[in-house]
Amino acid sequence: MMKTSLTQKASAEIRVDMPDEMVEAVLNALSPETECPSSERSITDVRKTPDGILVVTEASDTTAMRAALNSYLHWVQGIMDMLSKMG
Fold first, then answer.
1. What does the alpha-carbon distance between residue 80 and residue 3 come to, in Å, rounded to a whole number?
2. CATH assignment of 10-86?
3. Of 16, 19, 22, 59, which is least surrounded by CB within 10 A?
4. End-to-end Cα distance, the chain
5. Which of 31-40 are b and which e, b meaning 16 or more Cβ less than 10 Å from the residue's Cβ?
6. How far is CA 32 from CA 7, 9, 45, 87, in A?
7. Distance CA 17, CA 32 (A)
């Protein structure tokens, strides 16, 4: 559930499948950004699913949507890459 709401013009939900042992690490690493976003033009929530995580983004425009999704997906990929090299 989103913490706040924007005048929504764009929204997206992206499911990222990952091993269960990575889910908590990804959620913990992304929580500072979801709690205090760097822009007022978008809000993002990251949730646990049975197969990984769900990234839910609402944005005031498509440019903000693209920027937010690119950021979160790059962060998720980087965290997963780091975790796979550690274990």
1. 26
2. 3.30.310.50
3. 19
4. 32
5. eeebeebeee
6. 23, 24, 11, 24
7. 22
Structural contact between residues 48 and 16, judged by C-beta atoms closer than 8 angstroms: no
Position 76, amino acid? V
Q: Say if CB 67 and CB 33 are below 8 A apart.
A: no
Domain ranges of the chain: 10-86
- Residue 77 pLDDT class (50, 70, 90 cuts): very high
The residue assigned the tokens 């839910």 is 56
Side chain identity at 39, as an amino acid letter? S
- The strand pairing partners of 56, in sequence order, are 13, 45
pLDDT tens column, 28-50: 999 999 999 888 999 999 999 99
Residue 39, token pair as written in the block: 């822009």
- Token representation of residue 23: 């889910």
